[in-house]
Amino acid sequence: MPYKVTPTHLNGVLLIQPTVYSDSRGFFLESYNAGDFEKATGLHRDFVQCNHSRSAGGVLRGLHYQIHNPQGKLVRVVVGEVYDVAVDLRRSSPTFGQWFGAVLSAENKQQLWIPEGFAHGFYVLSDFAEFLYMATDYYYPQHERSIRWNDPSLGINWMLKREPLLSDKDMRGGSFLTAETYE
Q: What is the pLDDT of residues 158-172, one digit of tens each?
């Protein structure tokens, strides 16, 4: 199997380690193969959009989600290192309001599967990072919502090295307690 899949305490969130073939010339890995992904995870997902962002050290993006047309995301880092976070926004879930975080880096090559129904964000631990994610639905700005990264009711430990750099949108993020959530 080309992936080692580790379930997290959040139902549906998976840490994925692809098989890496390396030698003195460098390395090769298959970051995604629909058939192998389905065999390894039991999930059939059609990805419709692939995004690539570059962020400076200390940048924190999130916590973002779409209330309509929710996106499942398969995320990874190809340059640098981030602390990646998923928050369960499914009211019917036993882990509603809980979060999971993992260090994703170009070095460890781990990926995180974040299913539909979760908010997502990351904090750049390195001098800069390039972050790739495939999404199961398109981006609809009118449906995007943002929860404050430091919401006290979530209590996320972001592994901050310094005060985070935020976009205006993320500075205006709302409270988890009043956020629109999923059934």
A: 999 899 999 999 999
- DSSP3 helix / strand / coil % (the chain, rounded to 5): 10, 45, 45
Q: Would you name the residues annotated as active-site residues? A: 64, 133
Q: Band the pLDDT of 1: cuts 50, 70, 90.
A: low
Tell whether 183 is covered by a domain.
no
The answer, yes or no, to whether residue 91 has pLDDT greater than 80, is yes
- DSSP category for residue 163: P
Residue at 13 is within a domain: yes
Q: Measured between alpha carbons, how far is 147 from 181 in angstroms, rounded to an integer?
A: 11
pTM of the model: 0.95
What sign does the dihedral 35-37-40-43 (CA atoms) show?
negative
Task: Name the helix (H) or strand (E) containing 169.
Answer: helix 168-171
Q: Which amino acid makes up residue 87?
A: V
Q: How many angstroms separate the CA atoms of 135 and 46, rounded?
A: 8
Under 8 Å between Cβ of 143 and 68: yes
Rounded distance, CA 128 to CA 59, Å? 9
Is residue 51 assigned to a domain?
yes
